[in-house]
Specification:
Two copies of one chain form a homodimer.
Chain A lengths: L6 E6 L27 H13 L4 E4 L14 H6 L8 H9 L6 E7 L5 H14 L4 E6 L4 H7 L3 H4 L3 H19 L7 E4 L4 E3 L9 E2 L4 E2 L14 E4 L4 H10 L2 E4 L4 H17 L8 E10 L3 H13 L3 H12 L20 H7 L10 H11 L4 E4 L1 H15 L3 E4 L6 H16 L13 H7 L3
Helix pairs in contact in A: 1-3, 3-4, 4-7, 8-9, 11-13, 14-15
Enzyme class (chains A, B): oxidoreductase
EC number (chains A, B): 1.-.-.-
GO molecular function, one term (chains A, B): oxidoreductase activity
Amino acid sequence: MKKKKMHLLQYMMPPVTHHSSATWKPRNMTMTNAFQWNRPEIWQEVAQIAERGKLDAVFFADTEGIYSEYENSYKSAVRYASQVPCYEPSVLMAFMGAVTKHIGLTMTFSVAGYPPYILARKLATLDHLSRGRVGWNVVTAFHKNASENLGLSVEQYHLSHDQRYDRLEEYMEVCYKLWDSWEPDAIVMDAENNIFADPEKVHPINHEGKWFKCKGPLNIDRSPQGRPVILQAGQSSRGIQFAAKHAELIFTLQPDREAMKVYYNRLKEGAVKAGRDPDDVRVCFGLQVFVGETEEIARAKAALHNSLVPAEAGVTILSGHLGYDLSKHGLDELIADLKVPGIQGMIDAYKHSSSKNITIREAGMLHGRGVMTPQLVGSPEQVADWMEETMKEVGGDGFLLSPAYLPGSLEEFVELVVPILQKRGLARTEYVENGTLRDNLKALNA
Amino acid sequence: MKKKKMHLLQYMMPPVTHHSSATWKPRNMTMTNAFQWNRPEIWQEVAQIAERGKLDAVFFADTEGIYSEYENSYKSAVRYASQVPCYEPSVLMAFMGAVTKHIGLTMTFSVAGYPPYILARKLATLDHLSRGRVGWNVVTAFHKNASENLGLSVEQYHLSHDQRYDRLEEYMEVCYKLWDSWEPDAIVMDAENNIFADPEKVHPINHEGKWFKCKGPLNIDRSPQGRPVILQAGQSSRGIQFAAKHAELIFTLQPDREAMKVYYNRLKEGAVKAGRDPDDVRVCFGLQVFVGETEEIARAKAALHNSLVPAEAGVTILSGHLGYDLSKHGLDELIADLKVPGIQGMIDAYKHSSSKNITIREAGMLHGRGVMTPQLVGSPEQVADWMEETMKEVGGDGFLLSPAYLPGSLEEFVELVVPILQKRGLARTEYVENGTLRDNLKALNA
């Protein structure tokens, strides 16, 4: 029987930290460059290594603000580089696209700050210039400082979770209409008759909905993929419903195989309910890999990395996620004693730590070192074994690699683990010739 | 006496036409590539040629819609590629920045569709990744289809000209505050003490004005230039006042030296009134150059180019500029007979054509072949002479080159004209080592 291959994506937060608060620390590990987050070269190198490893895509998370819940101030986030600085991802992706040919360029954009026309246009531009390699991770989030930065109206900021998803559904509808507004063969370039494009094959969208008005057509011809690949990371039940309907690639952070399986099954059932082929809805699990030539080397690396993470950096992020200022409590108080909405979900997610009964400090360490991404530590064979077994047991479609250091941790994975996965028939060995990101996603297990 | 050097910028509209409706026509002239507007390579080549010629910057105009005034439809613009397709310029500039080191990357963004935070963040990202080469051409315009695409409220769309400039002044204020929100030495990267950045050197902006609310700080550290170079092309008296106050580089399309001189003097007087050194307010005049080894070759090229321009393409643009549907009139009616607001300004601008008393068709040709940019046709020496004399007579600071075909017309200018200007001490021969765009602007005549 032919084995199922895994999708592999490289997670990043556009500088300076990603899932790990230690990432910025210079030469903390096997880094080939000191970490210069504000230079394109290091990101271009990451994209090239990912392409060498035949990964599906590189991915950038994004945010339009600084977590300011902890101590009711942005200061802790700035001090610990807790998801700040954070660059505009499409510009960064363009620099990476300029030195690569195959790797997918996928990134988060929130629908909070942009009219759909502007976002649809930006993504279509990048899809053209990268020859069809763009993916968009759709996010509704209005985090507090982002809302304050964008000057959102009080009504907008206080939208309920469900209202945000209603608004998002309409946002997607407008984007789809814009991307479809030029037929594939609209451009004729008939110089003799002065016809650049056939106007009968370009259509206004005349959208007038509850949330948005947009006349169209898009002022950009149809890009190679038409619509970019849609990504999603929804965890709420409404989020999962949205993902099952729209997404082609889904990320999730789950503490163990049991939880992965529950999520995976919910998503696939949702896809069927939404009338889609469940194989088109690919679920990838977040994973922070430490790999070395031997298990001992890997363990030593993980230990060094984890020792470089300050708990406060993670508590700052956790306060942001909860929308609650944890500085009101001592670091040694138990998470389970907090009376905070959303805390039970966190506690469930801590299952992969030794005990549910952890302190704020311990929770901070978990958030600071990987925002709850499970760490996988071992020799190349051990890492490959765990990934293979997880896929077999859970039924997942692949992994989203969260870097503990860059470009070192990706480079080690590509050098040490990918060849084993390829040998076992579990990973891509060639890209589709002149293929788009969607072509490559579809071809993996075709 | 040391001669004054000219600033030189390359104008473009991100694909497919620029100031000339003939640009898209494949191999219409000495093009080294068939014109593939949707591939990065041709734009990267343009940037590299401009850098070889030691120009200050490449420049992209931008619009978020399709001119739909003519026949009350987008169809004519689509047919003739009248400023459509038009790609998002920052993404395109990033691809160009990835293959160059010195050339400035300047582009238009309208303040209509974005909160200031989003635009400030995008420009700061590009300024980081390009090592300080970014310039922003500030535009307030709400053209009709763009407004309809962005879903602007009725109140926003019906802002008066002066209200738009009031709003713009506040927009700039918010951007400046955001760009200044990180002190230059805020980042300390002290790994031992877990301090990435010193939070006391990062400041909220707490802006609450008439038009915008923004808390800040920017979630991006200070970029090499801090604030990007500000460009402007205002023609109205309020526009000129804005430019004199904010802009470091100003573009203008003027029909002849007399008009150039009037504009130039107004700008410099405005700069003095605004308390600025008039040398910091550089005025560049639009120019469409046809140059050949001999005058005859240049004339033949111009004739071919102009014959490839359909009048309707220009009438479509002119209708957009006037906000008036010229299809209600025959192409042979006289422009002077139209009862349209703004028409007198156009008539004045037509002075460089043989007669003020031109028909709609003739006006369309002028708009279609260069949106009223004067054409300069001649041998390399003749072109250099005209440019030198114009600078001497008018007192201007340089030129904005409008391409009739790409990359050919830029390549010819760089190969044939630039060496003459350099030899005469009228053009840059070296960039400032590791200099930003602003460093290069300041150093030219320092």
